[in-house]
Specification:
Elements: H1 2-92
Length: 98
């Protein structure tokens, strides 16, 4: 009986050790799941920021294109004004003052 009692004690101790390990694994699994959730949230935030940056870049690009077009129009207007000024100067040159 003594040997059977010791065997049962050893089995009980082994079962308790297994239960403790299972609880430890369960706790670590929960911790890992929480960490994974945090990682997913961080990745989603990075994706949201990237989308926002892309939209901002597109807006800046469109504004730059509009400014370039405006500058080209101003340049063309300035050239036309210079031609008109030259023509007017030539027309006035025929008149003598004095």
């Amino acid at each position: 009986m003594d040997a059977a009692g010791r065997s049962l004690d050893e089995i009980t101790a082994a079962v308790h050790a297994v239960v403790a390990r299972v609880q430890e694994i369960s706790g670590l699994t929960d911790k890992q799941a929480r960490g994974a959730e945090g990682l997913v949230k961080a990745i989603e935030e990075i994706a949201r920021i990237a989308d926002s940056n892309a939209a901002g870049t597109e807006e800046a690009s469109a504004a730059t294109e509009e400014q370039t077009a405006s500058m080209q129009e101003m340049s063309a207007s300035a050239q036309e004004l210079a031609k008109t000024s030259d023509t007017l100067k030539d027309l006035i040159a025929v008149f003598k003052v004095g």
